[in-house]
Amino acid sequence: MGRDHLLSLRPWESPETTSWQRLPMNAVDRRSGALSLDGSWHFQLLPSPTGASGEWTLADVPGVWTMQSPHDLPQYTNVQMPFGDVPPHTPAANPTGVYERSVDIPAEWAGRRIVLQVGAAESVLLVHVNGRQVGISKDSHLAAEFDLTAVVRPGDPATVRFTVVKWSDASHIEDQDQWWHAGITRSVLLYTTDPLHLADVTVRAPRDGRLRVDCTVRDTAGPLPEGWYVTAALDGQLLSQDTEFDRLNAEDMRVSDFYGEARLRTVVRDVRPWTAETPELYELAVRLHRSDGSIADSSHHRVGFRDVEIVGRDLLVNGERVFIRGANRHDFHPLTGRTVTADDMRADLVVLKRFGFNAVRTSHYPNDPTLYDLADELGLYVVDEANIESHDHAHEIADDPRYLPAFVDRVSRMVLRDKNHPSIIVWSLGNESDYGANHDAAAGWVRRHDPTRPIQYEGAAKIDWTDEKLASDIACPMYAPIEDCVAHALSGRQTKPLIQCEYSHAMGNSNGTLADTWAAIESTPGLQGGFIWEFWDHGILQRVNDGRPAGRGGVGLYDNGVTAPGHRWAYGGDFGEAIHDGAFIADGVVFPDRTPKPVMYEHREIAGPVRLTYDEGVLRIHNRQHFRGLEWLAAEWLLVGADGTTLRAPASLPEVEPGGSTQVPLPFPPPEPSAGETWLTLRVTTADDEAWAPLGTEVCVPQVRLAAAATDTPPEPATGPAVTLDADALLVHPLLTSAPRLSLWRAPTDNDELGGMAARWHDWGLDALVRKVVDVREEGSRVVVLSEYATGAGPVRHEQVFTPVTGGIRVEESAELPAGLDDAARVGTVFETVPGLDVLDWYGQGPWESYPDRSTGAPVGHHSLPVDELFTPYLRPQESGGRHGVRRFTLSAPDATGLAVELGAPGQVSVNRYRAEDLAAATHHDELVPRPGCVVHLDAAHRGLGTASCGPDTSAGYLVAPGTHRWEWTLRVL
Ligand code: GAL
Ligand code: MG
To answer: Distance between CA 272 and CA 203 in Å, rounded?
Structure first.
C-alpha cells in the first residue's frame, strides 16, 4: 500500500470529519442472510496511528483489544478525561489497532451491491479493502456501512483491513462514566442487495390503527428503472398505495429519477395496542418490485401500535399517564468489556422485567439493534440516547462549531436507525454535555424528522424545568431531592412532565428511601418516575496474579456475585491506571455477573402489579397496572404468626380494572387477640409462561399486618445461670468468643464514604471506641455494668444490666449519645460466637438484606439461611447483610445446638464472618479472611442507607438521633 491518504487526513483530530464514504443510516435490517466476518482476525497494536508496524497476533472480533492485549488495559474515569489534551486534540501515545483478514467474496454475488457493515468501532474507524481506501467512521456506538461493490470481485478473496484509533476528537464527546476501551465492539458483516434497493423504511403506527409506511428507494446502478413499485402486508393484510402521495410526487418537479419515494397505508381494525405491559407486535413485510413484478428487495419490521404524547404536564402512552420505573443500562460484560450478545441483552431485560422495571434509558449511547427488538418484544419503554457526552469539556464543546456536525450526525443517525421501534418513546440528545447551539441543532433535526416522539436532554432542562423553548420536552433532572420535585409539581409553575433521567444511585449498599420516593411520586400529579442509576456494577473479572482481565476464558469463574479464588471484580485503579475514579464504576442494581442485589427485591415490591391494604378490618386488592387486569397472575395467601407458624391457602385474584381495587374477604379467620402479631402475605406469581418469566415466577409479595404484637410480656423469673463477668467486666458465655459490647459504627458504605459520614465517624472516634468501666454492681441476681466511651462529640454513657432468666440471660442496655453525636452509624450490641453455628433462623423481615430505609420489599416471616449466604458481596467490602425488623433468631449448628436471641423490640440484626473493621480495611473481597465464628450485631437504631454517593442522603427520620437509646435482648442456649 502506498501513501495512505486516510491516515494523512489525521481524522482523529478533525471533529468536522464525522465520516467519509459512509452510507446513510437507515432502518432496514440487513443482518439476516448476511455473511458474518466475526471471529479471529489478524491484529497488531501500534503505539500511535502513524507508528511503526509491530507483530501480528490474533484478536477476537467483535471484541475490544483492551480486554485481550497485555499492552493496553482498561481504564476507568468518570468525569475527567484520561489525557490532558484539550478538544479536539489527542495524546501522542494513541494506541491503534490494525485488524486484517481475508474473506472469500461468493461468486454468486456478481452483479449485486455489496455492503460492509461494521457494527461499532471505538473510537475512529478507517477501512481499507484490497489496499484501497474505503471509508472513515466515528461514533463508537452506531454501525458504519460502506459500499464495496467497486472494490471487491465476486469469486475472489478480499483483504479487509480496519485501523481503529483509540483517542480522537470524538473521545472528547464520548466521555461517559465507564471503562475506556478500544476495538470493535459489535459484529462485522457483509450483505448484498440488488442495485435497486430499499434505502429506508419508516413505519408510523398510531393506536387508532392508521398504519403508514414510507419507503425510500434507490438504484446504485443509475436512475431508477421505470415501473418499480412497493407493496407491503401487515400480518397478511395488504396495504394500499397512497395515491394522493403518488400524484403529488408526480407533479413535483423536484422529484428526480434517482430518488424514489412510496407511501403505503392501511387501517387496522381492532388494534391490539402495544404497551410495556402488553407488547403486542404485528409483522410487516415490505417488498420492492421491478416493473415485471419480480422482487428486487424486501424488508421486515415488527410493528407495535401505540401513541406517545405530552398533554399538559403528563407523558401519556396510549392516553395513560404511565409511571416510568426505569433503569439506566450500559453495554457491559465482565469478560468482554462492552461486547454483548443477544442472549446477554435478553438476560438483562428479563432481569429488569422480573424486578418490576418497565423502562430503560440506553445510557449513554445507542445500543446494539437487538436490544430494541427485545424491548419491543418483552415490553419495556425505551429512552434512546445519542452518543454524546463531553463531560470534562462540556461547556467548551456544546457551542463549538467544529463539533456541530458530530452532534447532528450522532442524534440523527440514531433516529434514522431506531425510529420504527414501538418501545422507544423518547429521544435523548445525550448526557452531561452542558447545553449549547449544537444541541438545538440536533433537536431541530429530530423535531422535523420524527414529530411522533418527545425529546429529552437533562442539560437543557436543567437551566429551567419550565421553559418550553429549550431542547427538552421533559424535565429530566438527575438526583434531584424528591422534596424539590414535589415542590415543583405543587408550585403551579410546572409545564413539563418530571421524569428523572437518573435517581437513586445504586453504588454499593444503597438505594435508601426508594419507597418514600415512590410514595411521593405516586401521590403527586406531575411526577412520573425516573431511571435508577444504574443497572450494572461494571466489575471486570481480573486475575489477581498478573492483573490482567480474565477475558473470554473467565466463563464459570463467578457465581452469585462472587468470584473464584485468584480472581476478583476489578474497578478503577486495578489495572494500574494512574488516573481513575475507583469504585464509582460499581454502582448498579446487579453484580457484574447479573446477580440481583437486594435492592432489586425492594424495587420489585414497590413496582408490583398487586398491592394489599388492610384498613379497619377491610382487606383490599389493588391493581397497580395501567393497562391490564390480574388474569396473568396467580397467588397464594400466607398467614404468618408470631408463634412461628405460617399457614398457606390458595388465593384467587379478583377482577380488578387497571388502577382500581376490590375488597376481598379475609382468607383466614381473624386472629385471636392472644395470638400476638399476625401478618398476611400475598405471594403473587406468573400464572402462565411469560416471555420474561416461566410460570410460577414470583412477581411480588405484598403484606399487611392483621394484628399487632401483644404488649407487656411479664418479666421472667430469675432462674437461669448466674451471670459471670471477666476481669474487664465483660459477660462470659460458653457460646460467645467476644462479649457483648456497644457498637456505634459500621464499615462505611460507599454512600457513607462519599457523603462524608465516614470521615465524621472517624473524627468522632466511633471506629475505635475505648471502653472505660465506670461501675460494676450486683443487685440481687442482676449485674449492672456502667461504662463510658470518649468520643469527639462528647462522652457516651452505656449501661448493661444482665439478669439470669429461664435458660439464659436477659440484657437490658441503654446508651446516652451526647447532642453533638447527631449522626452515628448505629446504636447496638456486637458479640462474636464460637465456630460451627452456621445457620440463621429468624422471625423478622427477609429473606433478603434490608435496612431501615430499604425494607419495604422484605416481608415479615420465618426465614432461614446459611450464615455465609446472608452476606452481600458488594464489590468494595462494606456494611452488608443486615436484616431489618428482626424479632428473634437462632444461630445453630447442624446438631441443632446453638443460641437463641429474643429482642425486646424489632431491631436491625446482622450475622456474618467479618468485623466491621475487617470490612473497612479491605478494598476487594479476595483480601477478606472469614472468621471461623460469627460476628453478630443487634442494633436498636441503625442509620439509613440513603444515596449520598451521588444524590440525596437518607432523610432525617432514618438518622440515629442523639439522646438515650434503650434496648433489651435475651440470650439462651438451644
Ligand atoms: C451522572 C452521570 C452518570 C454517572 C452517574 C454517577 O452524573 O450521568 O453517567 O456518572 O452520575 O454514577
Ligand atoms: Mg458523566
So the answer is: 17
Does the residue 374 lie in any domain? yes
Which residue among 77, 78, 328 is best mutated to probe the pocket of ligand 1, counting the most ligand atoms within 8 A of its Cβ?
78
Ligand 1 center from residue 432 Cα (angstroms):
8
Domain boundary among 193, 216, 248: 193
Rounded Cα distance between 392 and 969, Å, is 53
Do 530 and 652 lie in a common domain? no
For 850-899, the pLDDT digits (tens) are 999 999 999 999 999 999 999 999 999 999 999 999 999 999 999 999 99
Residue 191, ligand 1, Cβ within 6 A: no
Question: Does one domain contain both 804 and 873?
Answer: yes
Residue nearest (by alpha carbon) to ligand 1 atom 9: 177
Ligand 1 contact, 431 CB (< 6 A): yes
Neighbours of ion ligand 2 (CB under 5 A): 177, 391, 432
Quickly tell me which residue has 410514595 as its cell: 519
Residue 907 has pLDDT above 50, yes or no: yes
Say how far apart CA 165 and CA 182 lie, in whole Å.
Answer: 8
Residue with cell 439462651: 972
Instruction: Find cell 439522646 and name the residue.
Output: 963
- What torsion, rounded to 10 degrees, do the Cα atoms 721, 726, 729, 732 define? -40
Q: What is the rounded average pLDDT of the residues 413-417?
A: 98
In a domain, 549, yes or no: yes
CATH of the domain at 25: 2.60.120.260
Shared-domain flag, residues 692 and 759: no
Angstrom distance (rounded) from CA 437 to CA 175: 19
CATH code at 405? 3.20.20.80
Name which of 188, 195, 175, 194 is nearest 144 in CA terms.
Answer: 188
Q: The CATH number of the domain where 298 resides is what?
A: 2.60.40.10
Number of domains the chain contains: 6
Nearest CA to ligand 1 atom 4: 177
Q: Which residues are catalytic?
A: 432, 502
Q: Is 314 inside any structural domain?
A: yes
* 433 and 344 within one domain: yes
Q: Is 750 in the pocket of ligand 1 (CB under 6 A)?
A: no
pLDDT tens track for 918-959: 999 999 999 999 999 999 999 999 999 999 999 999 999 999
Q: Is residue 607 part of a domain?
A: no
Output the CA–CA distances (angstroms, integers) from residue 845 to 247, 828, 859, 909, in the order listed: 70, 18, 5, 10
pLDDT in tens, 486-503: 999 999 999 999 999 999
Is the separation of the CB atoms in 305 and 252 below 8 Å?
no
Hey, how many other C-beta atoms are within 10 angstroms of the C-beta on 794? Answer: 14
Ligand 1 atom closest to Cα of 505? 12
**Do 772 and 910 fall within a single domain?**
yes
CB 118 within 8 A of CB 26: no
- 591 and 631 in a single domain? The answer is no
pLDDT tens per residue across span 40-63: 999 999 999 999 888 999 999 999
Residue 587, ligand 1, Cβ within 6 A: yes
Check whether residue 475 and residue 524 sit in a common domain: yes
**Residues 76, 79: Cα–Cα separation, whole Å:** 10
- Verify whether ligand 1 is closer than 6 Å to residue 533 (CB atom): yes
* Cell numbers describing residue 230: 412497493
pLDDT of residue 2: 46
Distance 502 CA to ligand 1 centre (A): 8
- Residue 432 near ligand 1, beta carbon < 6 Å: yes
Q: How far is the CA of 390 from the centre of ligand 2 (A)?
A: 8
Q: What pLDDT, on a 0 to 100 scale, did the predictor assign at position 1?
A: 42
DSSP string, 103-126: EEPPGGGTTSEEEEEEEEEESEEE
Domain membership of residue 211 as a residue range? 206-303
Q: What is the DSSP letter of 854?
A: B
- What is the Cα–Cα distance from 381 to 426, expressed in whole angstroms? 9
Are 54 and 149 in a shared domain?
yes
